[in-house]
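Dear Dr. H.,

I hope your travels went smoothly. While you were away I took the liberty of generating a structure for the chain from your last submission, since the lab meeting agenda had it listed for discussion. I wanted you to have the full record in hand beforehand rather than looking at slides cold. The sequence, exactly as received, is reproduced here:
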Amino acid sequence: MEEKLKLYMVMLGCTPKGRLTEQHDIFFGIGNSLKNLVSQMKKFWPEAKGKIHIDAWREVSAIENFSIKISAKDSTLNSSSDNLFFINLGGYKENEFKEYHYKILTVAESMGLASKKARRSTFYKLAVSREPLRTSTTNTGLMWMIFIRYLIYCLRQLKNYTH
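The corresponding predicted structure, in token form, is as follows:
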């Protein structure tokens, strides 16, 4: 019996040579198991020279009211104009030496509509300014400086997946 293909979202970690802190990136892959994706993960982040590890992962089987199924690109299952989007919101809290992130997977017809959904998140709404973070000696409470990094990474290639 053929194993079902699955979509995986993986947070990879690595401390590259010459760096003082661990760095992270998000990898998306299609396979029968996480173990089967290891070589693809290493190719995805060649600068890590194979010294990566998995900090977090999930099988993406449902987003909002949509179920996620992997099918060949010529399949009639995919007649929808919807796309799967990955959005990485990042920001800073005043007087904290830390960058916070909020990752969103969403389904929308366009990048603009996906971005609109992200702007409705609590993380985004806490933003009071989009200005670069400056050192401050005053504590004005919970002020977030938000930026959208990698504004939206659209997983369109998954719509065209062939196996």
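Two observations you may find useful: The chain is about 15% helix and 40% strand. Confidence is low (pLDDT under 50) at residues 133-163.

With kind regards,
E. W.
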